[in-house]
Each structure stands twice: as structure tokens, then as C-alpha cells.
Amino acid sequence: MNDDVIVKSTIQELVIANRALAAENVIDDFGHVSARHPSRPDRFFLSRSRSPLLVSVDDIMEFDLEGRPIAQNGRRVYAERFIHAAIFAARSDVNCVTHHHARSVLPFTVAEDPLRPMFHMASVIGRSVPVWDSQDEFGDTNMLVDSLPMGQSLARALGQGTCVLLRGHGAVCAAPSIPGACLVSVYLKENAEMVLNTQKLSGASHYLTDGEIEKASAMLMSDMPLERAWTYRKAKAGFTGL
User: Fold this and answer.
1) Which of 5, 170, 184, 234 is spaced 20 to 30 A from 104 at the CA atom?
2) 80 is annotated as an active-site residue
């Protein structure tokens, strides 16, 4: 498969990821998804500033790792493109980044207790999800990650994990593939829902052990489960022929 075909396939998958996460009510009108360029690791793809549910192939733009568009051509770009630029720069293993404001996740951005995986599918979020607070380094802001230093600070908080929460804002998920990042994003949201519902029932939570998290996440992020989940999400978003 030549580079042009691989690039076109990556862009198509990125479009599907935008639509699929919107169909799952993970991403709202202001979220976004990016993918690393498959043959230029110093660049990434991200839609022009548009609601994810409407993203098409023609909306996808190319950026460098400082968040600069390669060919803007008058198009508006996401203010928070620096989230993606900084994480791709910091993590060579990451090839897809999502940023969303899933409502069930938001309480955990301001709670004292960390968000931890409660059911096996959520093992992919890691042992506990760190919270990044823009106040610590940047004081009062408009709450957007709209500069490279802010993106770099957020990337440090993510570390080598798959998820980080943004205080009073939302979440970022990262993975080696587009299907993987979508899997993490969906189960971050669903795990948050489960934790909240469990607390209503008993006020106590029983989480996965570290060993369960390690073994279950390794299984779920392997080829067969990822393919199964990804074909399901593509079909749910209306892409049955791909």
C-alpha cells in the first residue's frame, strides 16, 4: 500500500472517528479528534473548526507539532489544536488524540476522589485518571488550552497514560491508533456513568485491581477486540460499507 493510499485511509478513519464519538454522545459540538500523519510523524491531521458530527474529508487539515497549519487557506482552526500538537510531540507512541466534554466525566474533574476503572472494559483508562488544573501554571484563563505552553503542561499531566481530565472542562484521551483512542474515550464516559450510579446505590465503589487493569487492558487493546469494537462503532455511525 503506497503512502497516498495510507494517508487517504487515515483521513477517512479520522472522519469516522469524529462521527462515531458524536454518535456515542462522547463528543459534543465543541470536541475534536486528531490523527498523526502516517508517513510524517512530525505532523498530524485535525478538522477545521467544525462540530465533529459534521466533519467530512474536505474539512481535514494538516498541522505541525507546534499547532501551525500547513495550508490554512482561510479556514478557521480549533483554538485547542495545541492539545494535539503537544501530545504528539511528547508521545511518539500516540497516533490519535481525542478531546471531549462527556457530561458524566465532568464531575470527576472537580472531585477529590480520582476516577478509576470499575468494569473490565474501562481497564483501558488506567489505574486512576489524573486531573490537570490550568490554574496551577496559568491562573485565570478562558479555560481553553489555546497556547502551546498550555498544551505542553497538559501533556506532562497525561504522562504515559491514556487519559487526563481538565478541571472544570473535560477530558483528553490518547492511544496508538484511532480505534484505540475511540475505545478509551467511550469507556471513560461509560465508566464515569457507572461510578456515579453505583455511588447513588451504596455510596461505596469497588474498583478493578491493578492486576485486573493490566491484564484486561492488554487484551482489549489487542487487534481482535479493537477491530470488533471499531467495526461496531463505524456501523453505528452509518459507515457500514467501510
Assistant:
1) 234
2) yes
Share of the chain above pLDDT 90, in %: 94
What distance in Å separates the CA atoms of residue 55 and residue 235, rounded to the nearest whole number?
Answer: 17
Q: How far apart are CA 208 and CA 194, in angstroms?
A: 13
Residues 11-46: b if buried by 16+ CB within 10 A, e if exposed: bebbbbbbbbbbbbebbbebbbbbbbbeeeeebbbb
Gap between the Cα atoms of 210 and 205, Å rounded: 15
Q: Give me the catalytic one of 80, 193, 214, 227.
A: 80
CA separation for the pair 131, 231 (Å, rounded): 31
Is the pTM here over 0.85, yes or no? yes
Q: Quote the percentage of the chain above a pLDDT of 70.
A: 98
* C-alpha cell, 15: 472522519
Beta bridge partners of 96: 35, 175
